[in-house]
């Protein structure tokens, strides 16, 4: 850590903070994620989850996925040296707008996100927390999939999981119903992100978590008139209730 000039906090979570930093010798600007060991050791299974996050994320190399440059630890923290995305995330950017991004901008974001998800699927990685808050904007204006804290490595493309996890507005019906789910649940999340980028909020957004989950399980949502017919068709193709009916992302 002494090789870095740690500057200020740019994000925080339940188990640590993310800081902007600069390498003292190369001048490279990075983000450093500090994961506090004391906090994760007090939560059952968290150390295993963090180590799994590091193992999965550190080996991913794709233009649409946030890069891990290095990782190490000391007695108090696990450190992830990450690519710096100085322009925040898509959710924060969306909140500055009155009703969503213009379609040409969404088209560009979607192409990059889908390319990244296809890469993950080829490597049998289920992200499980695809939200606009986890899509970061690089210094070049491109987008990067981040936060692999809930990601899991599947042994087979058809492997299923039963753990209910993720952000309520973006989880699939099978996750909300606590039934088996696989790679197709990430496709549903892509559909939710697509809808949110165009309209300003996720398709099943309710007054609270319970209402949101009920809406997801019913599969009913309203489509604003300003969304183009092509976009409506694509959203419908992604937000299919049966996982096997969802659009295949790979071209």
Description of the molecule:
The chain has 251 residues and is an alpha+beta fold. Strand 7 (135-137) and strand 8 form a beta hairpin. The radius of gyration is 18 Å and the shape is globular. The mean pLDDT is 94. It is built from 8 helices and 9 strands. It has 2 domains: 4-83, 2-Layer Sandwich (Phosphorylase Kinase, domain 1); 90-245, Transferase(Phosphotransferase) domain 1 (Transferase(Phosphotransferase), domain 1, Orthogonal Bundle).
Q: List the helices and strands in order.
A: EEEHHEEHHEEEEHHHH
Low-confidence segments, ≥5 residues, pLDDT <50? Answer: none
Coarse shape: globular
Strand order of the largest sheet: 1-2-3-5-4
Count of strand segments: 9
End-to-end Cα distance, whole Å, is 42 Å
Keywords: ATP-binding, Kinase, Nucleotide-binding, Serine/threonine-protein kinase, Transferase
Pfam families: Pkinase
Protein name: Protein kinase domain-containing protein
GO molecular function, one term: protein serine/threonine kinase activity
